[in-house]
Specification:
The structure is a single chain. By secondary structure, the chain is an alpha+beta fold. It has one domain (about 15-140): 3-Layer(bab) Sandwich (Archease, Possible Chaperone, Chain: A, domain 1), CATH 3.55.10.10. It has two helices and seven strands. The chain has helices spanning about 25-40, 65-80, and strands spanning about 15-25, 55-60, 85-95, 100-110, 120, 125-130, 135-140. Helix 1 (about 25-40) packs parallel to helix 2.
């Protein structure tokens, strides 16, 4: 690098993402498992809390299955974050080509939740694949 009288630059590698892979016998189950992975990372998965929650429908469209997954997870993250809630249940009802439908049930969050803030769902190494009688969905999150 020398002294500062020389000009130049260097690329500094920085890993600021984490991957989630979900799999199951159906594409809906693979999306469900990827959603559980996201909720685990952000610390917002609280299944079966005693109080009733607010059910919110989710419907997303994309140009292909990968972009549908990104949009689905992005919507879940957006609702959880902007409403400052935890998720007590959810369902991925149907994934078909360029869209996904389902719902999440939101519940007031406890005083603190332990988790990692996720800035965005990325297209980096994104894949949704059918193989060996099952589905796998892989996505990376910018943290």
């Amino acid at each position: 690098m020398g002294d500062h009288s020389d000009a130049g630059f260097e690329i500094l590698e920085h890993t600021a993402d984490v991957g989630v892979r979900g799999w199951g016998g159906s594409i809906e189950e693979a999306f469900r498992q990827a959603t559980l992975g996201l909720l685990d990372i952000v610390g917002a998965w609280r299944p079966g809390r005693d109080e009733a929650g607010e059910r919110v429908a989710i419907s997303v469209e994309g140009r292909d299955l990968g972009s549908v997954l990104v949009d689905w997870l992005g919507e879940v993250l957006y609702l959880q974050d902007t409403r400052d809630v935890v998720i007590r249940s959810f369902e991925v009802e149907e994934v078909a080509g360029d869209r996904a439908e389902g719902w999440i049930e939101l519940s007031r969050r406890p005083a603190e939740i332990e988790g990692t803030a996720v800035k965005a769902i990325t297209y980096h190494q994104l894949s949704v694949e059918e193989r060996d009688g099952g589905w796998t969905a892989t996505v990376y999150l910018d943290i």
